[in-house]
Structure formats: C-alpha cells, structure tokens
C-alpha cells in the first residue's frame, strides 16, 4: 500500500508516461481501503473489535493516500498556493504515521480478537500504551519530519522499520492463529477463521512488498504493492459473500426478492380475510331470513330486506375474490363468437361487433369474458340509457415496445370519457370514480392483471369525438414458458 516517491537523486525514478496509471492505482486502492473498513465499522459500530479493525485499516490507507496526495494533489497545490516543502513535510508525517502506527493498531486488534468471544466489547487497557514504546523509540531515532529524505538515503531506516513491522506482523499472525485454535464454539470459530482469511493475506502482502523489497533493494519489484487493489477487491467480495451466507463481524445481509405488486397483494390478503369473515356471517343472516319467512305468516318485510342484503354482499364478496385472487389461465384459440356468448352480450344494450372472418383470440375464455363484461358494464354506467358500444377485433397489430404481433380487441363507448384526474391511476387497485357500495375499484385492475397474465396489455384513451376506448392486446403466438 505504499511506495517510495521518485526523486532525481534517489534510487527510484518513475517515467512520466507511467504517471497516469500510477495515480489511478493509488486512488483506486485508497477508495477500496476506505470502503472495505468503513463497511466493517458500520457492520457493528459499537463493537470494540470493529472499531479497532477500522482504525487499523484507516492507518493502512495512509500509504496509498500519501502517494495520491504527493503525485496528484501535490503538484496542483504547489502550483497554486502551497510551497513544495510543505507538501513534502505532510508526506513525511503521513509516512511516519503509517510505518509507526499501522502495525501496532493491527496488533491491538489481534490481541482483542484472541481474547474476545462473539465479538463482544473488550478493554485492552494499558496494553495499548505498551505498544507505543517501540514506536516512540523508533521515532526518536528517525524523526518523522525527516521521513521523506530518509527513505532515499538511509539503509538503516529501512532495516529498522523492516524488523519493527515484520515483528508486529509475526505477533499478529500468532495471535490470530491462537484465536482460531482456542475457540471451542463452532460458530465463533468459523467467524474467526473467516476474519483471519481476509486480514492476514492483505497484511503480509503489504509487509513484503514494502519493507522486504526496500530493505533488500529489489527496485524492479517495488510497484508490486499495487496488487493490493486486487486483494482488496477479493477481500471485499469475500466479506460480502460471507455476510450474505452466514454473517460476518456482526452483520448478516439478507437478499429479499421484492415483488413489485407486493403492496397490492398485502391489501388483497386483508380483503380476502374480510370477505371470508363476512361470508361466514352471511350464512347466519340468510338462515334467519329463511326462518322468518317460514314461521311467520305473513312474513315481515324485514325478512326480505335481510335476504336481499345478504345476496348483495355475497355477490360482492364473490367479485372481490375473483378480481383479487390468484389467476390460473388456460389460453387456447377461441372464435370471437364464443367470447360473445360467454359474456352475454345480448343484454348489453346497443352493441356493434366487427371482426374479420376466421379471427381467433389466443385467450382464457372465462377470464377474458369477465374482462369484456367488466368493460361493457363500465360503458353502460358511464353512457347511461343511450349507451352505444362498438367492439372491434383486428389481427396483426403491433404493441409499442413489445416484440411480436397481437390481436387487438377494442371496446369503444359514447360516454363522457375518462376524467383527466383519473387517467394516471386508472388501473391501480381501489381506484374508482363511481358512487355506490357495489364498486370497490378492482375491476380495471383485474382487467390489467388478466392481460398481463396473457403476456399482453390493456390500454385506455379518450376518443376525439367523445367517449372512451379500451384496447386489449392478445399475443398471436403462445409466449415461451
């Protein structure tokens, strides 16, 4: 996660043409580190282990951030308001903070990781202060504000920091292995193995590519530290996968398959429950009305009122169950004449039919007849006594945005048309402009569900001369199952 900055007199000098890639890798690594450890922290912000893990991760991110700061932001600041010396001083302090503090923070995390059970709060106490003693001694030998120059000129600098950080790395590894081996709870042991599998490869890759390569002056290999971006991506993906499968470090992600009409389904479950409860009491009302008619002569008028209301409520519950229940279609080719007979057009008033000879509709006869009956009822109620309805069938039609050919069945009336305020929500459940207790606003929503189940569609529009036109589109071929 770190590399020595280039200098004309130093052992490393980057080529100009490689700067763009170099900068992009620095920025990518920094963002990946921040995203990964922020996710760990947010998994359980109150847990001490998650806090220490995030702290160590943020300290490690100083490596890539200082490279991005020096190579990208540094020249910009130098050209605008900042002298170059200040940029180097800030770079030096960030380098010292990384080399001195990152591994002690990691060791503190590993110690608490070994001692804690189920990621409960742990209190490291004075051990945190003891970890600062070697760092203070090293800072006294190599002043942090001189880190920029020491990286280029001092071999002892790299030897001492290599021994210092590798020692911490070995201690961290021992503590994490002990944490796994000592754990007797299988669930907690699995969690600790997962955390070790994520953290240890990242830590050792950074230690080797920075301190070992610099100490032994393996200059051609120095930029291998940029491979941390690949490891970070793998670690992030592994973390998310484990969080989904069984949970990791205090978080468990759950994938929920969301159904777009879930709100309507929830409402329909309530409607079905109410309908079922009403029908249970309706049998009692009908029984009471029948007994009043049988035992009283003449029967009181209240008996007929009760019987009529019971029939009305039973019919209403039946239509609600039909319109909001689960659809089971059996599409088959049907002649329009079969559909007319099924829905009973003879009692629909003045209805004109227009269809080409031999036309067929690939539809479910029962549900499609109910759709057509619903549209005809709406037309009669909208137009009144002078209702005139035109039903037309045309084959080979296209539906915008949908491949294939459709048979279109149009139902037009001479009513007032669809109110503008209702056009947007026309096919939503419980939407109706009709008055009275017979209308619950489920008819057009049911029509839409039936057409969608046919892999078709229903559209509505106002006619130029007045009236409304509903168009039903039926695929001419069966959709692939």
Automatic annotation (TrEMBL):
What EC designation does it have?
2.7.13.3
Q: Which InterPro entries match?
A: 2C_sensor_his_kinase (IPR050980), HATPase_C_sf (IPR036890), HATPase_dom (IPR003594), His_kinase_dom (IPR005467), Sig_transdc_His_kin-like_C (IPR004358)
Gene3D superfamilies in the cross-refs: Histidine kinase-like ATPase, C-terminal domain
Q: Name one GO molecular function term.
A: protein histidine kinase activity
Instruction: Identify the enzyme class.
Output: transferase
Q: Write out the GO biological process terms.
A: phosphorelay signal transduction system
List the PROSITE patterns.
HIS_KIN (PS50109)
- Where is each Histidine kinase domain found? 273-478
Q: Name one Pfam family in it.
A: HATPase_c
Reaction equations catalysed = ATP + protein L-histidine = ADP + protein N-phospho-L-histidine
Keywords for this entry? ATP-binding, Kinase, Membrane, Nucleotide-binding, Transferase, Transmembrane, Transmembrane helix, Two-component regulatory system
Tell me the SUPFAM superfamilies matching this sequence.
Answer: ATPase domain of HSP90 chaperone/DNA topoisomerase II/histidine kinase
Membrane-crossing residue ranges in chain numbering: 20-42, 49-71, 91-113, 125-143, 155-181, 193-216, 222-244
Domain of life, per lineage: Bacteria
Identification of the protein by name: histidine kinase
Q: Which organism is it from?
A: Candidatus Flavonifractor intestinipullorum
């Amino acid at each position: 996660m770190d590399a020595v900055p280039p200098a004309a007199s130093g052992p490393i000098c980057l080529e100009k043409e490689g700067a763009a890639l170099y900068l992009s890798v620095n920025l990518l690594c920094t963002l990946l580190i921040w995203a990964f450890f922020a996710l760990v922290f947010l998994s359980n912000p109150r847990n001490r282990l998650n806090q220490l893990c995030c702290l160590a991760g943020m300290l490690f991110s100083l490596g890539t951030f200082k490279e991005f700061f020096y190579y990208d932001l540094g020249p910009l600041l130098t050209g605008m308001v900042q002298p170059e010396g200040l940029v180097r001083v800030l770079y030096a302090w960030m380098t010292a903070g990384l080399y001195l503090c990152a591994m002690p923070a990691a060791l503190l995390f590993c110690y608490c990781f070994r001692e804690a059970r189920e990621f409960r709060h742990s209190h490291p106490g004075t051990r945190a202060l003891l970890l600062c003693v070697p760092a203070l001694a090293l800072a006294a030998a190599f002043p942090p504000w001189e880190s920029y120059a020491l990286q280029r000129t001092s071999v002892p600098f790299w030897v001492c920091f290599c021994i210092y950080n590798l020692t911490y790395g070995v201690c961290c590894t021992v503590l994490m292995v002990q944490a796994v081996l000592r754990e007797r709870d299988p669930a907690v042991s699995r969690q600790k193995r997962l955390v070790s599998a994520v953290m240890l490869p990242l830590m050792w890759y950074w230690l080797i590519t920075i301190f070992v390569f610099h100490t032994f002056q393996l200059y051609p290999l120095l930029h291998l530290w940029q491979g941390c971006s690949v490891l970070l991506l793998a670690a992030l993906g592994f973390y998310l996968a484990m969080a989904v499968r069984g949970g990791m470090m205090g978080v468990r992600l759950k994938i929920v398959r969301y159904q777009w009409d879930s709100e309507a389904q929830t409402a329909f479950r309530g409607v079905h429950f109410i309908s079922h409860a009403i029908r249970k009491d309706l049998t009692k009302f009908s029984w009471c009305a029948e007994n009043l008619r049988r035992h009283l002569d003449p029967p009181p008028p209240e008996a007929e009122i009760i019987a009529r209301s019971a029939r009305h409520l039973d019919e209403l519950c039946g239509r609600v169950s039909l319109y909001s229940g689960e659809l089971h279609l059996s599409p088959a080719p049907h002649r329009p004449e079969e559909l007319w007979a099924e829905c009973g057009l003879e009692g629909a008033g003045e209805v004109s039919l227009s269809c080409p000879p031999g036309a067929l509709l690939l539809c479910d006869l029962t549900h499609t007849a109910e759709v057509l009956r619903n549209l005809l009822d709406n037309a009669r109620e909208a137009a009144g006594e002078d209702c005139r309805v035109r039903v037309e069938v045309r084959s080979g039609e296209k539906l915008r945005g949908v491949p294939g050919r459709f048979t279109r069945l149009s139902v037009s009336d001479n009513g007032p048309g669809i109110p503008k305020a209702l056009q947007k929500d026309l096919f939503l459940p419980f939407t109706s402009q009709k008055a009275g207790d017979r209308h619950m606003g489920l008819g057009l929503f049911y029509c839409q569900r039936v057409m969608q189940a046919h892999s078709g569609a229903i559209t509505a529009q106002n006619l130029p001369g007045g009236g409304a036109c509903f168009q039903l589109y039926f695929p001419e071929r069966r959709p692939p199952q």
